[in-house]
Amino acid sequence: DEWMENGDVSLYDDTRAGVLMVFFRELKAADAGTYRCGVNVSHYTESFTELQLSVKHDAKYPKSMTESAHLGEEVNITCQIPEEHEVYFCKEDDNHICQNISSSK
């Protein structure tokens, strides 16, 4: 149950949920490729899931935007999201880890 960082990649091993979360920051074309998430079952065997990561740029959905508001005011944030995708909204902490605020399908 701790965060580990390696450059622009952060990992969180949630042992209670049995989930390893991996976060990439500032994705680059060079980050595309084959990744494996696995465990050593014994000294002789391991179990893993292979993942193919592709990195695409879509000018229709901006990478970043800035919204401003004064203390006590309201702010409306609008993000263009393709339909039928899981949507999440998170706040980045001091370690550049995005802490989930809300998500939906």
Describe the largest sheet: 3 strands, antiparallel
Estimate the mean pLDDT confidence: 81
Structural class: mainly beta
Which range does the strand content fall in? 35-45%
Number of DSSP strand runs: 7
Helix percent reads under 10%
The run of helices and strands is EEEEEEE
Radius of gyration: 17 Å
Characterization of this structure:
- With 105 residues, this protein is mostly beta strands.
- It has strands at residues 3-6, 9-14, 19-24, 33-40, 46-53, 87-92, 98-104.
- A three-stranded antiparallel sheet has the order 1-2-3, with no helix packed on it. A two-stranded antiparallel sheet has the order 4-5. Strands 6-7 form a two-stranded antiparallel ribbon.
- The radius of gyration is 17 Å and the shape is globular.
- The two termini are 26 Å apart.
- The mean pLDDT is 81.
Break the fold down into its secondary structure elements and pairings.
Layout lengths: L2 E4 L2 E6 L4 E6 L8 E8 L5 E8 L33 E6 L5 E7 L1
Antiparallel strand pairs: 1-2, 2-3, 4-5, 6-7
List keywords for this structure.
105 residues; mainly beta; two-stranded antiparallel ribbon; Ig-like_fold
Summarize the structure.
The protein is mostly beta strands and 105 residues long. 0% of the residues lie in helices and 43% in strands.
